[in-house]
Amino acid sequence: MFSGILFALAAGLMWGLVFVGPLLLPEYPATLQSFGRYLAFGLIALPLAWFDRGRLKQLVRADWIEALKLALVGNIVYYLFLASAIQRAGGPLPTMIIGTLPVVIAITSKLRTARVGTRAEAPLAWGRLLPSLLLIGAGIALVNRVELEHLRADPNADLARYAIGGLLAIGAVACWTWYPIRNAEWLRAHPDRSPRGWATAQGLMTLPLALVGYALTWLCHLASGDPFPLPFGPRAADFVLLMFAIGLFSSWLGTLCWNEASQRLPPTLSGQLIVFETLAALSYAFVLRKSWPQAGTLVGVALLIAGVIWAVRTQPAQATVDAHPN
């Protein structure tokens, strides 16, 4: 269990980096950043697939289809929503909306019936789950309040643009509520499979999706007469370097660490540990702002941490193991 928590922490630190890209490259369209990131992820996965070829041979057709679904929803569509939200609303607001994921995933996992053939957890009583959810929810609400006050104090703020950014962030929440639950179900139904091989498989399935998306983005820009220089934009070196850095650390290494955590922890707990991503992203956002967080933000972060600690102390009941799904 302790190793699973450490892997979840490492994944959060890696995933927090994805909130930095849209802030460092604000002039780049969200579509280009999303497809660029996952094109880099897919290219990184190609040499890794050679080293993981033995593990990848164990995957059957249904596994590859599952990897394709996870790559589409959890990678491409999720980051399209997130990058668009950050470019419209800045870093902190989408970060805190994404920060509701621990609460949303925990409740969804609690209410959702496990897929046939997956390893099901014994029910966790609401009384044991509720305190950590309340602490995390209160922390997120407090930080959101501080950010909204910051927004109202800005005379140049475009409230409509921020509102659209918030809605796009909610779309990202929907994608990443589905992804970790579905991914964890596959991993916990296949405890003999390599989390690293599964991360590489998702990278391989992401590559054709990203290639098609990048090509379509290029064609749409040519057809519209948009002067934005393609294929790599006005800051080509910065764009390529950042996309490969995020592709390696956030996409592959982050997914690997999360897969390791998902095999060790029940969904109700691992869902709450996504709060590590929120804490990392907030830290990175304030570093880019070159300012210290306000007192309310620090109290909110303290509540988030308290909720995580409470969740860790809530020991899950022993899981029952079923056969692999067909």
Plain-language structure description:
The protein has 326 residues and is mainly alpha-helical. It is built from 14 helices and no strands. It has helices spanning 2-15, 21-24, 30-51, 53-56, 61-89, 92-98, 101-111, 126-152, 159-189, 195-224, 236-264, 267-272, 275-289, 295-313. Helix 3 (30-51) packs antiparallel against helix 5 (61-89).
Summarize the structure in short.
76% of the residues lie in helices and 0% in strands. By secondary structure, it is mainly α.
Strand residues, percent: under 5%
Radius of gyration: 20 Å
Count of DSSP-assigned helices: 14
Q: What does the largest sheet look like? A: none
What are the segments in which pLDDT stays under 50 over at least 5 consecutive residues?
317-326
The SSE order reads HHHHHHHHHHHHHH
Residues in helices, as a percent range: over 70%
Distance between the terminal alpha carbons, to the nearest Å? 28 Å
Structural class: mainly alpha
In round numbers, the mean pLDDT is 82
List keywords for this structure.
326 residues, mainly alpha, 14 helices
Topology:
Blueprint: H1 2-15, H2 21-24, H3 30-51, H4 53-56, H5 61-89, H6 92-98, H7 101-111, H8 126-152, H9 159-189, H10 195-224, H11 236-264, H12 267-272, H13 275-289, H14 295-313
Helix pairs in contact: 1-11, 1-13, 3-5, 3-10, 3-11, 5-6, 5-9, 5-10, 6-8, 6-9, 6-13, 7-9, 8-14, 9-11, 10-11
